[in-house]
Amino acid sequence: MYKLFWKFFFTIWIAQLTTIWGIGTAIWYIRHHEPLTEVNLDLSNGASFYLDPVVDTLKTQGVVATEEYLKKRFRRIVYVVDINNNKELLGRKIPIDFLELVNQKSHTSLLNNAIQSLSVDGHHYLLFVADIPSPWRNRPLIPVVPLVGATLASLLFAFILARHLSRPIEILKQTISQVGAGHFNISLHPQLVNRNDSLGELASDIQNMSSRLGKLIDSQTKLLHTISHELRSPLTRLQMATGLLRQKMIGNDDEMSRIERECKRIDLLIGELLTLSKLDDGINHLNEEIIDLNPLIREISDNASFEAKSLNKLVSLNLLNEFIQVKGDTSLLYYAIENVVRNALRHARTNIVITVMKTPNEKAHISVIDDGEGVDDSEIMHITQPFFRASNTLKASNSQGFGLGLAITYKTLQAHNGEIQFSNLSDKQGFKVDLYLPLLT
Amino acid sequence: MQKVLLIDDDIELVEMIAEYLKREEFDVSVAHTGHDGLSLLKKDNFSIVVLDIMMPGINGLETLAKIREESLIPVLMLTARGDDSDRIIGLELGADDYVPKPCTPRELTARIKAILRRSQNSQNLNDNNRVIEVNQLKLWPGKRQAFWFDEELQLTSSEFNLLEVLIKNAGKLVTKTQLSEEGLGHPLARFERSIDVHISRIRNKLEAINHSSAPIKTVHGQGYLLIIE
User: Distance from B219 to chain A by nearest Cα, in Å?
Assistant: First the structure.
């Protein structure tokens, strides 16, 4: 999650370092590769003040003493050059151009002794006063202290800037994943929303968007709920009317039975829609109870076994021989698991296997396997959508569902912090549904 | 003929129910608001009230509470299917049973008949003076009277029936299924809580008379048991 921060940080830091080093090098380069000119040479009368003691020393005490003397006193400004080989007495480097300049000037500056020439032991020396910058002056080539300082400063600023940019983005990213997970009631820090830049605008846009989304979904859920609810009044009357009609009727009529059956189906559908909208409304509306899974699943399995007999199918149940308790809404979980078992029963050729296990990470694992044809791989991801029917369901003549069962199962599991997974067995040999629910600890 | 009072704000629906019940040999009166229902109830002697819980104005639950202030007449609630909370509150207020809406008239009639049969059946028996006695609890099924520490218990029809089932099986575990079938006259629906609510009301009434705990024990997840001391 700090990836973005480090990206910003290194980009900014490297940019700063490059700039500092680049400009530093450029300044250094310009300063030290400027050709030396007359300006660097002291041609004033004052020059002899420095030169005279050196000349005296050279005359009277020789080269070695002069070296010592120079080192002690005039290392910086007084230069003594052997004209024959252009070597300076202390070994300091002097550009040839500059030496020629000094040579020329030496003829005109004899008057004020600003440049003096002297012969000792067959060597001709030229003595002058000049300001020759490093590298001629043997200064350290890399300025360590300024560079370290600049690097540290750039680290600090890169950190501050990277944080300034990446922090709001991290917050927005988290917020958006919250919105994605269905929590529309987000509140961003006012400091972020009131930021006077694009990030601030983005933050306030996201906040508006999510509250609007929340309202839309809320009103949609309410509408679904209201419609389902309101449909019940006319349905009640319809059922009453058919009942009345049947009471008055003599004998039995197929059409009448069909009307009654369809009424029941509508009632069932409305019930499922209401369950779905209750689940959409959130976990707060669930009854929380402690549930023993074993008896619950045994009951589902027994009911399924009973139905399976008439279809010449077989339901087998493998329970774990220990308490498996979860927390949740009993009727919803019953319905959720029953849906899966009923689907399996509908699609199985002959066998349905229900197994209850515990996973190492403290979850109850209920697997329901049938030996039917399975679901097209391309359709597996859609089967939890409301009203979706897999293509092979349409073929089944005894199809009873509305395509809401698995949607309810999925949302129920979600509301209980559980998980559901679907998979085909190889070679169209069956279909497997895995349900996971957190165990009560 | 048994007199039935229908209280429901859905005028068309009530008309149809009334017609259906008349054909089933009931004497039906109709009210569309809680107020009308209550005043009709004062004027006449009814055997049972069928009450819609989801009414505007003074709603079904308030009407139920007002009815229970005055009498122990059997009350059958019409509740929205899937709405547990209204149903539980209704039962806690002393309704005898409920039918979820939408329902077929046949289901409704069957429920009415079950309640009526059970609120009156023993009266037709010869053994009017037969008494069942366990500890301090006495029941006259023929008179539909119950006494606890010699004080009469004011029980609704369903409560009496359930207590009767328990006392007949005193000392034995009675499952909720058995209680529902024998006491309420219909099979136990899945996740049904009405038995628990009824039993808790019976307990409260027993405890109101004698503070020592009521002799009905809960066997978790299975049923109830009347203790013989």
Answer: 15
